[in-house]
Amino acid sequence: MVARLRPGEQDIEPEASFAAADVVFRALFSMPIEHATAARVFAALPAHQDAQPVVNLAALLPWPHRLPHPHSRRTRRSASEIRGLIAGLVADRMAAIRDDTAPDPQTGRRFSEPQMVDQVAIFFLAGHETSPSALAWALRLLAAHPAGRRPSPRKPPP
To answer: CA dihedral defined by 135, 139, 141, 143, rounded to 10 degrees?
Structure first.
């Protein structure tokens, strides 16, 4: 991440997001974000986030569980693209480690590929946004208050 930074002021969140995505892909699939499929997933995320409504009325209103939630075509299309890419990665990984996958100790069952895609997508989408945001704020605070330039202590009132 440091090698990607430019001198001077800049928006750090995109770089932190790139670093977080790299960590997720390395942890889940042992591949860097520069891998072709990982890079495609990362590149597809902004379109998916932009397609999300500011307020999701379906989440606020009573909605029968058997009916699909109404989403825009853009949201469904971007989610389908991301899920398809992740499904390919999961299928490859599951085939490579099928015999070594530990079953659930209570049920003896293993995740199916669709269940694993759900887990990976949730993990990736959640970690891709929250961690970079926290890192960006931490770096912003450090930049605003660097070591050695501490505010002068307040004098106690008389």
So the answer is: -170
pTM above 0.70, yes or no: no
pLDDT of residue 60: 64
Cα–Cα distance between 102 and 110 in angstroms, integer? 7
Report which of residues 64 and 28 the model is more confident about.
28
Residue type present at position 57: L
Q: At what angle do helices 73-97 and 36-51 cross, to 10 degrees?
A: 150
Residue-by-residue DSSP string for the chain: -GGGPPSS----HHHHHHHHHHHHHHHHHS--TTSHHHHHHHHHHHHHHHHS-SS-HHHHS---TTSPPP--HHHHHHHHHHHHHHHHHHHHHHHHHGGGPPPPTTT-----HHHHHHHHHHHHHHHHHHHHHHHHHHHHHHHHS-TT-PPPPPPPP-
State yes or no: pLDDT of 62 exceeds 80. Answer: no
Q: Report d(CA 105, CA 110) in Å as an integer.
A: 10
Q: What is the mean pLDDT of residues 133-147?
A: 83
